[in-house]
Amino acid sequence: MIGRMSADAPRTGPPKAPESTQGERLAVAGLFVSAFLLRLMHLQQIRAHDPFFGLPSVDPRLYHEWAQAIGGNFLGFTPFFMAPLYPYTLALLYAVTGPDLLAARLLNCLLGALTCVLVWRLAREFFDRRVALLAGALTALYSMLIFYEGSLLAENLIAPLTLCVVLTSVRALGEPRVSRWLLAGAVLGLAATARQNVLLYAPLMLGWMAWSLRDRVAPMRRLGLAAGYALGLALLVLPVTLRNLVVTGDAALIATSGGSNFYAGNNPEANGAYRIPSRFPRAQSDDAIEQAAIYHATAEREQGRPLRASEASAYWFGQGLAFIRNDPSAWLRLEWRKLRRFWNADEIWNNRSYELTREFSWLLRLPLVSFGVLAPLALLGLGLTVRDWRGLFPLHAMIAVYLATALALFVLSRYRVPVVPLLAVFAAAAAVRLVEDARAQKWRGLAAALVALAALVAFTRLPFPEASLGMAHYNLANRYQALGQWDRAIAHYGQAIADDPDYISSYNNLAVVFEEMGSHRDQAIATWQRVLELANEQGLERHAERARRHLIELQADGAGHSDR
């Protein structure tokens, strides 16, 4: 037995949680304050040292600019390419504070501290106070949550919303009233407007409700509960769909990036992580807006007609499915690779590198909780509580949703992070169970659990080829260039080129830096010549024309010239 859950009788919902004591409530308050202070300390560090703090890049820049655009035009003009809840939340904040990047990050810190309390509350539905408080502490100390809360990313909102979805579902199963199921559906709908993959949770919960309540609730009443759930979901999702239809004439459910993401994760070159297919010039697809444009333009060219955004998305879904049909064995190998990546200790980055950011925050250099610690314990906890699966089904279902999303698309650290708080519950349950067995001198059970844990540690540390940090160095160099810190920009462009010697944008921007310095004419000429070579090899006429123009100007008069 772990905490309060036992296998004496099958359950379809958690046992009624006992009232928390004053001491436990004080501990939870301390958990919230400690988690918030940790995040504030990290925020102070990156505010002082990280060039990305005032100059966000890639998705954080997109969210920041999108939020500001909402202030000028609430509905916008195009279908949502990405789920809109986070930028609209930022827009609401900016209406009060102005477009303040510090205020946005403070909001992230509050959401992060709230996430720790929600983890405690959810764990308390199933386990005792030790498990619940430990789960909250693991979440508070989880390195990647602290790291991402320093950036403007939707995951900061998705993580607490995911917990709210599970918690309201647990309560709805425990007290099957229409109002409870209406609320659960509405919370799921709200979460879907932050990331639409959570919609997969709806059929799982409806099916589970219909089966698990069959002996407690009459069929017509169960139908009424399902109707309430669907209504709550529709009340939050349909306004987004109607907005897409009215503003653009395109009835996209929420966002239109699903097809391109599916193809990116299912094509002959896919490796289980996010990877831009070689059919797209990398220099033209480095951020979400450019990616949307190039995917759309390619779909129109290959279809030979103009396409709505939802039609382009459907086209790329079809291309991904074609790969699966044409080479099912390759797809199965790819799925095994994604499964291993999902549970692997490595953190696969795509906006910011955790390793490079540690340079700017002493807090991130501390021995915080990592996925390599959490995942084996969570898997062990899932195994140790398997006899209580009926009561724990809402948690299992949400973990399954995120795993299924990774298998269908690809694995990224920040796409995995919203499920970490749920894994923390099972990790805490496993840790408490190990301590209980040791104190009770249950040596056989303890030995078996430790052997299983060792095997799980080995599984989560199966090696993958080391990910290149070339793009991380490139992005960092761009920030230093914008700040006029030439030596640092040159150093990181150099590292980006060493890691990825064929990426033309690194050479292009390095050549610009040499020109802007005014005293490195020879280096500028040599770098522009390399840009011209790569442009000719890769068929990038725009880059080739720019390089020729700069070379002519440099060779003619020796004057530095900047063209961005």
Q: Can you put this structure into words, describing what you see?
A:
The chain starts with 21 loop residues before the first helix and ends in a 7-residue tail after the last helix. The model is unreliable at 5-11 and 559-564 (pLDDT under 50). Helix 23 (504-517) runs antiparallel to helix 24 (521-538). It is built from 25 helices and no strands. It is mostly helical and 564 residues long. 69% of the residues lie in helices and 0% in strands.
Structural class comes to mainly alpha
Q: Based on CA inertia axes, which overall geometry fits?
A: globular
Number of strands: 0
Which segments are poorly predicted (pLDDT under 50) over 5 or more consecutive residues?
5-11, 559-564
> H/E order of the elements?
HHHHHHHHHHHHHHHHHHHHHHHHH
Based on CA atoms alone, the radius of gyration comes out at 25 Å
For the biggest sheet, the summary is: none
Distance between the termini: 64 Å
Strand content: under 5%
Helices, by number, come to: 25
The helix content is: 55-70%
Instruction: Provide the residue-averaged pLDDT.
Output: 91
